[in-house]
Amino acid sequence: MDWKRIEPTIISKVGWRVVVSKTFIQPNDILHHYQTTGAEGGKNAGCIALTKDKKVIVASQFRPGPEEILEEIPGGGVDKGEAPEVAVKRELLEETGYIPGKLEYLGKACRDAYSNEEFHYFLATDCVPHKDGQQTEETEHINVKLISIDQLLQNGREGKMSDTEALFLAYEKLLKLRG
Hints:
This protein is of the alpha+beta class. Helices cover 21% and strands 45% of the residues.
């Protein structure tokens, strides 16, 4: 199947969100317009972080989309020129006040068919609190919670978190760590 992208691409910003309008000639020669989200080439990184006693560190915070508090894995945007590994360590420290003992790359995921961004996921083990604690931004109101691996998996099944792709990528490792 040949899909041909036609210019111009239109980039709009709504707050700090990016909407990219793209036009393609489909394989049946029909022109179609699509609106996608996130900057083209954008990257994000998140991690399932566990303490030395195998408790999962989650960032419990209000999310405006579902309008509820979710127990999320730490993560966020990868700055331009920054490696996903560096970004995820920074986000873990900022959001939770923890630093990893070991960091293992799990893989990348595409959030949905209309997202331009890559999502890189890691498993952080043997995490310990940093002496300076959390370093959240003005708009972040995060309560750090330690939960069991079973509770994390349950949260994913019940829609009480985002980034459930990370659970799929780490599933077998989490089962082994759970014991």
